[in-house]
Amino acid sequence: MRLSSKDWQTLTFATLALAAAACLPFLTAGYWLTIGVTIAMYTVLSTSWALFSGPTHYISLATAAFFGVGAYVVGYGIEHLPYWSLLVIAGVIGAVMAALVGLTTLRLSGVYFVIFTLGLAEFIRQVITWVQNWTGQKGIYVLTSITEAHIYWQLVGLAALVFLTGWLIGRSRLGFALRIIGDDEEVARHSGIRTARAKILLFMVPGAVGAITGAILAPRYVYIEPILAFTPMLSFQVVIMALLGGTGRLWGPIVGVIPFTLLWEAISASFPNQTTLLLGLSFLVIVYLLPRGFVGLIDDIRARAGREALA
Amino acid sequence: MRAVSPVLSLRGVTKRFGGLVAVNGMDFDVAEHEVLGLIGPNGSGKSTTLNLISGALMPTAGTISLRGTPITELPAQDIARRGVSRTFQLVRLLPSMTVLENVKAGAVFGHRRRWGAEADTHAQAMLESVGLGGRGHLRVGQLTYIDTKRVELARCLASDPKVLLLDEWLAGLNPTELEEGIALIRRLRDEGRTVILVEHVMDAIRSLCDRCVVMASGTKIAEGGVSEVLSDPEVIRAYLGDDDA
Ligand SMILES: Nc1ncnc2c1ncn2[C@@H]1O[C@H](COP(=O)(O)OP(=O)(O)O)[C@@H](O)[C@H]1O
Ligand SMILES: [Mg+2]
């Protein structure tokens, strides 16, 4: 693979940004580290979500399903296996789940896909609840010596991996195929692109990443319950943040994640009982006012500036 | 002369949409280097026939073979990979991409697959071959109508097709553009490409096609040399329009 000087610039900048982000735990251990974990978590989830949903325009609400399964892998496995191996297992299970969902739904239209993915998290949650009722359990304890800083560093590492994956896909045949599929699936098929295969492969990325994120976050919860691990709010927030930032660029979602997380912290502290309502409102506002997110806005401003410079 | 096995052959190919038989028992062959005209009044089933060949639709009955191998059941992407390339009656380009990237879609995927610099070079060469060498950097929205048609054609050519399916590629062009369009397709013919040309423009059919198949209400009503077919009383009656109820 040959790298242009622009590629080197991108890689250098990304490395420096991630290295800077990794310093946060040395500066603070309290409130701001907690916010940092939240931002890192949504960065990982939204970026991997946009990798798939950006080019294919399929809105996936399966994040909570992958996340919850990852959390439960750690919950059930922590007594038996080393922690790091659980991350790998979670990733594999998430990817396989995504492949199965893709095989059954990606041939259908987007509407079925949205509903199916939303139902998936709810379905798994019900199954686990049912199993736990049957065994007389309510939740499971995850007791480890993993600190908030450890969780944060793992998430930053995962973010690096997600960005690298996205960058490599963007330069690959698969990435080109996905852009064509996003523009016109029929043209894609008649050009010889195996559209279903490409979409399934790509959907495995948020599948694996979602599950690994759940596994990384599990020790933070200490006590895991289905309602917590599979909360649909997570899926919706990931979609909102990614759309707010914009899915047209790899760095788009993070531009939405940071302001949204900060704003959300403030809002949910002031109006703890109206969060669902406010989440729905913010969704409508974003879709109406910023259909292509901040990225689209930046592109428009640049284009306008370019035209004025010419005039 | 036709001892060589045909590139493409249809046998008893039928497509029903509910009660409507859009294509009814079509039989024809396309020989290598041949330009076959597929003509007939509106709604006679020409586009549906191309959709069946390219795999956009699955036939209700019959067999379609490419160089003797059945491709009837294959999905569109596999048919494209085997070398059947098509344009659409209503031009379909990739709106978020540049002209060159549109053509590259054909060079990267399709029958012969390329990547990297090889794909860029090939796409650029195909763009030049349709007369758009200097337009590669434009967005497709900035093109004139005939140029969008050229880009779509270049995308097909970039995939090294064995058979090219052109659905009313000349429709909607003004007289000057039409002349350019006909010249372009004549060049494809001179290069020895195998083409099925669905067309309404009689001048184009006369000057470009080796043979014609005429359809009316889903059925083949005539096949043969162009002048012979166009003087067939049944064909004339079909075109005068008392047939396609
Ligand atoms: N997808 C479809 N579903 C139902 N009917 C169709 C479909 N496609 C074409 N038809 C019908 O099949 C007939 C042939 O159409 P078409 O092949 O487009 O004709 P042509 O290209 O010769 O003008 C028409 O009556 C048309 O309405
Ligand atoms: Mg037609």
UniProtKB/TrEMBL annotation, chain A:
The keyword Transmembrane applies. The keyword Cell inner membrane does not apply. Pfam families: BPD_transp_2. InterPro entries: ABC_transp_permease, LivM-like. The chain crosses the membrane at residues 59-78, 84-103, 151-170, 200-221, 227-244, 251-271, 277-298. GO terms for cellular component: plasma membrane. It is a multi-pass membrane protein. Keywords: Cell membrane, Membrane, Transmembrane, Transmembrane helix. It is found in: Cell membrane. One of its GO terms (molecular function) is branched-chain amino acid transmembrane transporter activity. Its main location: membrane. This is Branched-chain amino acid ABC transporter permease. The lineage of its organism: Bacteria, Pseudomonadati, Pseudomonadota, Alphaproteobacteria, Rhodobacterales.
TrEMBL record, chain B:
The keyword Nucleotide-binding applies. GO terms for cellular component: plasma membrane. This is ABC transporter ATP-binding protein. It comes from Thetidibacter halocola. The lineage of its organism: Bacteria, Pseudomonadati, Pseudomonadota, Alphaproteobacteria, Rhodobacterales. One of its GO terms (biological process) is L-valine import across plasma membrane. It comes from the Bacteria. Gene3D superfamilies: P-loop containing nucleotide triphosphate hydrolases (3.40.50.300). Residues 8-242 form the ABC transporter domain. Keywords: ATP-binding, Nucleotide-binding, Transport. The keyword Membrane does not apply. One of its GO terms (molecular function) is L-valine transmembrane transporter activity.
